[in-house]
Design goal:
Layout (H helix, E strand, L loop, with lengths): L2 H23 L7 H23 L6 H20 L8 H5 L8
Helix pairs in contact: 1-2, 2-3
């Protein structure tokens, strides 16, 4: 493990902890499709970061990288797409339905 790998692994741990904390921060009463999509996105980010961290300590098969990229990219996309109050997506996905459970 070289310095670059260590720095990347530390960043992956920060992202993992943040994703788990944000997942834990979603209230049980927030049950709309938007919140379930956000939960899925954060879960995918968490899985991707766990795979990334594990890949530094194991001999990762080539398909791990493909799965990690797929889960990571979709996880980030779903999480950012459903971030409350964030333009430019918010007005398009909220449809102005007045959900105030932010």
């Amino acid at each position: 493990m070289n310095l670059f790998d260590i720095v990347c692994c530390i960043a992956a741990v920060f992202i993992l902890v943040t994703a788990v904390a944000r997942l834990n921060d979603i209230k049980r009463t927030q049950t709309s499709k938007r919140w379930w999509t956000r939960r899925l996105g954060l879960l995918l980010v968490s899985v991707s970061m766990i795979m990334l961290i594990a890949s530094y300590f194991t001999v990762a098969a080539p398909y791990w990288n493909a799965i990690m990229r797929l889960t990571g990219l979709w996880g980030f996309a779903l999480t950012w797409l459903t971030t409350p109050g964030m333009p430019p997506w918010w007005k398009y996905i909220s449809r102005g339905d007045g959900e105030e459970d932010v």
